[in-house]
Design brief:
2 domains; elongated; IMP dehydrogenase activity; potassium; CBS-domain; four-stranded mixed sheet; metal ion binding; IMP_DH; TIM Barrel
Length: about 375
């Protein structure tokens, strides 16, 4: 016998009632908690889709205060590399800069530059002692790329170096005095400890609302599946420095997904984990009990999602979000509304329904930064 569970609402079914406000638009605070330990300056996440989020879009979104999730439709090595690209893009002090040996050829340096997108590499010995730096300016007019970097590098006597813990003002003063764009961080034995670039300082000044970790690096997330064999992918992403892991499935309230979350939480107790997708309060509570740091809600509302069409399953998104928020009340675990966001007003409606943030796909798929 057919049983109607209850009436449910989606974005087009509701409007927000206006009321008196004392907040000026330019003083509005859009910051929100993605998880208990990760705060966003705007409540927007980019979808982990192969037409939406790779490193370039994740960088652009993090610079504006949101966070991007690198999709999983690629090799483990490439996904980890995409995460590393975001983490190294605007890092203040690069704690583990890419280095080369004095015997490295200029041809190899050129290949590194094409792969990484930057041209400055500290030159170190096998014992990590700094001996120089090679930059694009050093080799701009060199035609014989088979020569070692030791021939053209700037030697350590002419480098600008700073000790660990130097303040930003001191570092900038030294760089300005020597008219250089890079300063190398060394210890008392002249072993390399990091690198600072003036471009990173400039980027930080231009994007004051950027979403960054405690080391000044842009934040980034990455998606993994719930099936067997994803352990290696999780390990690689954690090693690459991912800030938050998304364990993604079209039906998050299933034992396979829940077990994957439990196993990942057991191995990485401090890792921030988002689980999804669910569309009911019971599903949200199950993900929280399994160890999720945040819960993603939405089955079928996305513009290209076929779950509702193929399976006949789903819950209208406003009601799904509201039910999940109610089920998680008192836990401190945020809810993310994923899918169905077509207009900016839908973001406001999702937040009014209780979501801490929204995940968007189609709104970003046509941007220059998306892989398209």
């Amino acid at each position: 016998m057919l049983r109607i569970a209850k009436e449910a609402l989606t974005f087009d079914d509701v409007l927000l009632v206006p009321a008196h406000s004392t907040v000026l638009p330019n003083t509005a605070d859009l910051s929100t908690q993605l998880t208990k330990t990760i705060r966003l300056n705007i409540p927007m996440l980019s979808a982990a889709m192969d037409t939406v989020t790779e490193a370039r879009l994740a960088i652009a979104l993090a610079q504006e205060g949101g966070i991007g999730f690198i999709h999983k439709n690629m090799s483990i090595e490439r996904q980890a590399e995409e995460v590393r690209r975001v983490k190294k893009h605007e890092s203040g002090i690069v704690s583990d800069p890419q280095t080369v040996l004095p015997t490295t050829t200029l041809h190899e340096v050129k290949a590194l530059t094409e792969r990484n997108g930057f041209a400055g590499y500290p030159v170190v010995t096998e014992e990590n002692e700094l001996v120089g730096i090679i930059t694009g300016r050093d080799v701009r007019f060199v035609t014989d790329l088979n020569q070692p970097v030791s021939v053209y590098m700037t030697p350590k006597e002419r480098l600008v170096t700073v000790r660990e813990g130097e303040t930003r003002d001191v570092v900038l003063a030294k760089m300005h005095e020597k008219r250089v764009e890079k300063a190398l961080v060394v210890d008392s034995s002249f072993h390399l400890r990091g690198m600072i670039t003036v471009k990173d300082f400039q980027k930080a000044e231009r994007k004051p609302n950027a979403c960054k970790d405690e080391h000044g690096r842009l934040r980034v997330g990455a998606a993994v599946g719930a099936g067997a064999g994803n352990e290696e992918r999780v390990d690689a992403l954690v090693a690459a420095g991912v800030d938050v892991l998304l364990i993604d499935s079209s039906h998050g309230h299933s034992e396979g997904v829940l077990q994957r979350i439990r196993d990942t939480r057991a191995k990485y107790p401090d890792l921030q984990i988002i689980g999804g997708n669910v569309a009911t309060g019971a599903g949200a509570r199950a993900l929280a009990d399994a160890g999720c740091s945040a819960v993603k809600v939405g089955i079928g509302p996305g513009s290209i999602c076929t779950t509702r069409i193929v399976t006949g399953v789903g819950v209208p998104q406003i009601t799904a979000v509201s039910d999940a928020v109610e089920a998680l009340e008192g836990t401190g675990i945020p809810v993310i509304a994923d899918g169905g966001i077509r207009f900016s007003g839908d973001i406001a409606k999702a937040i009014a329904a209780g979501a801490a943030a929204v995940m968007v796909g189609s709104m970003l798929a046509g941007t220059e930064e998306s892989p398209g």
